[in-house]
Amino acid sequence: MRRREFITLLGGTAVAWPLAARAQQGGRVRRVGALMNVAADDPESSLRVAAFAQGLQELGWTVGRNVRIDWRWNADRERHPAYAAELLALAPDVLLTTGGTVRPMQQATRTVPIVFAGLVDPVGGGFVRSLARPGGNTTGFATLEWGFSVKWLELLKEIAPGVARVAVIRDPAGAGGPGYMGALQGVAPSFRVELSPIDARDPSESESAVAAFAHGMNAGMIVIPSVSASVHRELIISLAARHRLPAVYGGRGFVANGGLISYGAVTIDQYRRAAGYVDRILKGEKAADLPVQAPTKYETVLNLRTAKSLGLDVPATVLVRSDEVIE
Q1: Least confident residue range of 143-147, 179-183, 245-249
Q2: pLDDT above 90 coverage of the chain, percent
Q3: Which CATH architecture fits 3-144+267-296?
Q4: CA 102, 173, 221: angle at the middle one, nearest 5?
Q5: Which CATH superfamily is domain 148-265+299-326 in?
Q6: Domains 3-144+267-296 and 148-265+299-326 share a fold
Q7: CB-CB contact of 160 with 221 (8 Å)
Q8: Confidence class of residue 279 from pLDDT cuts 50, 70 and 90?
Q9: Taking the model in full, what pTM does it have?
Q10: Dihedral, CA atoms, 16, 19, 25, 26, nearest 10 degrees?
């Protein structure tokens, strides 16, 4: 589906797919409620819809024929509880959530099955009892690898060897913020870099903090994945460009929008895999019995145009390892 067609179909922060005929499975159309932590017109939105719908279709579920998906889109955390209540009022058979929307959905229901995609540290965050036996009504696909932090520093030093000071854009209230930051602090001495954490939740504070940090020499930046970083993605990318900071991100979306380089799990793949758990739940299995799964696909994405604008000579080793090069 082309992005323009998707946005036209969306028509706002919520979308309900039309019903075309009676379901072929179980004699009725099954219903899925989906609460996302990005806006409807965010480039990630159409990718998530397409990946999840494709995963369902491969398992015999066709949107508009035997399954209906009610989407709610909003990057404003304050609106998530209201959207969770809206979705529950539609009597869904199962719910799809993402990292920043699991908690409000769990607070809204402890009975309707919940499948998440892209959640950081589900055990540490108290979302599930264990990875192998989640218990309760929630399971899904998590981002668990604190080792990402080492890779981010490796890439930063490889692409910009002179970097000795690194601003770390983080959300201290986010589920993964403390874990990623702790891992970075543990390996920073071996890379001979000094870390300076900057809060991603307040745009004005972030802007002034990055400006102050960039006055020094040999500076770079790492952006830890979080809802706040995604919401303020354009600002963060523009700050890196304005202050000529080589920056490493945790997801492809930043690089597609002009960021330098990223390494992380293929998030869209998790939505395709989440369709498999939704299928199993619709066929009678319980969320409590489905183990939480870690990412299986990772990617490095490089924006050569941004590298050139920063005056960086990208090593051949980085080019060879990149899964995608944007020129």
Answers
A1: 143-147
A2: 66
A3: 3-Layer(aba) Sandwich (3.40)
A4: 115
A5: Response regulator (3.40.50.2300)
A6: yes
A7: no
A8: very high
A9: 0.81
A10: 90
